[in-house]
Each structure stands twice: as structure tokens, then as C-alpha cells.
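Researcher: I've got a protein sequence and the SMILES for flavin mononucleotide. Could you write out the 3D structure of the bound complex as C-alpha cells? I'd like something to compare against our soaking experiments later this week.
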Amino acid sequence: MKTRITELFGIQHPIIQGGMHYVGFAELAAAVSNAGGLGIITGLTQRTPQLLAEEIAKCKALTDKPFGVNLTFLPVLTAPDYPGYIRVILDAGIKAVETAGNNPQKWLPALHEAGVKVIHKCTSVRHSLKAQAIGCDAISVDGFECGGHPGEDDIPNFILLPRAADELKIPFVASGGMADGRSLVAALALGAEGMNMGTRFIATKEAPVHQNVKDAIVAASELDTRLVMRPLRNTERVLRNAAVDRLLEKEKTLGASIKFEDIIEEVAGVYPKIMMDGTMDAGAWSCGMVAGLIHDVPTCKELIDRIMAEAEAIITQRLAKFAAS
Ligand SMILES: Cc1cc2nc3c(=O)[nH]c(=O)nc-3n(C[C@H](O)[C@H](O)[C@H](O)COP(=O)(O)O)c2cc1C
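Model: Sure. Here is the predicted complex with flavin mononucleotide in place.
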């Protein structure tokens, strides 16, 4: 399937694996890219630029297909070594960067000069327009359903995607709640030129996370996520567990006076414990409502092949039948 997204990134299928903390390692990115999508290594999971360089080298040994790097610009006081990470990306000849969080404007000239295509993740039309205006090449439009940070506007993809289509000139992918061929066809119908998946790719054979994480996603329904850190305007959609219940209780009790320090135990440094050790109640970890649509743990190739076959069948059979009647 050809779209402006497949053309932009030189990939076979319009499917991107979003950056995911402690999930987006070389093994997953390479598996997604080998299956014809765009795999993404999560930059900041590598604690130093040197470690990112090593992870990129590992990925290159596993695939000769294009893959990208996610750079998340965090709202923190002591920023990570972003110039160092950018240098590593450029030196490695990476051609796709997924940015998220703050405005990536400062880094665009260097990235574009090296021929890197930048897809910025946005949870609103106004941020998407800003990203387009500063020169981003594409947008990942992330609806309220998404795992991770859905922003503070709470607009689901059935509204957000057609709104983005009405306003944007650059191509965009639908992100949040995407799982199968139905998601892809719906995303295309609403104006997107592909889709980005996070949670769905965690429940794959190649995702290098503990089996408990995959089992938790398969066991979860669409009712099992919660929004945390809303009072801090840093809303995150996570899978409900004992730590999340505790965190929400603190939010209720402390109200508007809550500070990050109050919930540090539930949110700081918990990802390695969950993703590597499989200690599922160690803290709050991102997960989308789409967990309700995930019932198996296929390989990335099985997943992507299945999505493309299902999408094609929906377009050529189910939809064509309606159009002809
Ligand atoms: C466990 C997990 C960790 C994530 N970490 C990041 C991250 O570090 N940076 C980022 O830009 N997005 C992150 N995301 C968001 C994903 O890239 C993607 O936008 C989101 O998962 C899409 O929604 P879905 O889960 O419904 O597919 C994360 C998502 C999950 C589930």
C-alpha cells in the first residue's frame, strides 16, 4: 500500500511503531522494520548518547530496512543531553526521527540538513498546525484513547483525525487505539495516511519485555486503563494496578496541592522494574484502551501481514459492496 507516509519514510506498509520507554529497543524496532513498517528505537531509554549509538548499531545488525529514533522532549529541569543524542542520530545516518513532548524547532535545521524526516507527535490540531508551520515533515496525531500522554484536551480520534485532515497539508498517521486492519482502514477513511501503534506492539513475540507485561495487556479490557497525573497537567494513560489505585487515592486526598514529589514512588524509575523484571505492581506504566482489542502475542511480521490482509479485504470486499449497492 502506497501513501505519502510510505513514500516519506521509504517503507512498504503505512504502519509505525511509536517510541516506547523500555520497550523500543533494537529487537522490536528491527522486527517492525523487517516486517515492512517503521520501527523506532526510544532514544531516552538509552541513558547516554553513547548507549544510543550502540543500540542503533545493534539494530543495524538486525535489519537493512529503514528505522527511526524517538526523541521525547520532557518537561524536566535538568534536560538530558539532547545535543549529544542528535549528534549520534546524525552520525549513524538515521533518516527518521519521531519527536514528542515539547516543540522540536531548535533541532529541525540540523536534522533536515542531514536529510532526516521528522514526524512530531501531537494531541491537538493546534499543536499539529504549529509543527507543520515550523517545518516538520509529518504528524502522528495522538487521540485521547492512546497509551502514554494524551494531553489535556481529551479529544478522541473519531473527531481529532478528521479535524486534522481538514487543517493539515503535511501527511499524518493516526495514533492511539490502533490495533488491526479495521483501525487502518478507519484511519485512512478519516484522512490519515497510515497508523502508529504503541500498546499493540508490546504484545508481540519480539518486544523485549517480560512475559508478564504481554500477559497483562492480553488480559486487560478497554475498561482497565486510568488517567493519572491530571492535576499536574502531565496526564498519562496507564494500566490500572495497585500502585495506580494508590496514586489516584493520593490525587483525591491532596487535590490541587499535589506535587510530583508526592507520587514519586508510583511513577519515578518504575519502567525497568515493570518491563524488565515483570513486577507489574511496581508503578504506573503507559497502556492504551486498545488493550481491549489485543488477544494474542504474534510476531511483528504476523501482526503486520494480518493487518494489511484484513485492511485490503475490508476495502475491496466489505466497503466495495456498500459502494456498489
Ligand atoms: C509503555 C509505553 C511507553 C511509551 N513511551 C513513550 C515515550 O517514551 N515517548 C513517546 O513519545 N511516546 C511514548 N509512548 C506513546 C506511544 O509512542 C504511542 O504514541 C501510543 O502508545 C499510541 O497509543 P496506543 O498505545 O493506543 O497505540 C509510550 C506508550 C506506551 C504504551
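Model: Residues 18-21, 23, 42, 70, 72, 100, 121, 142, 145-148, 175-178, 196-200, 285-288, 290 surround flavin mononucleotide (CB under 6 Å). The two ends are 26 Å apart (CA to CA).
Researcher: Great, I'll pass this along to the crystallography team.
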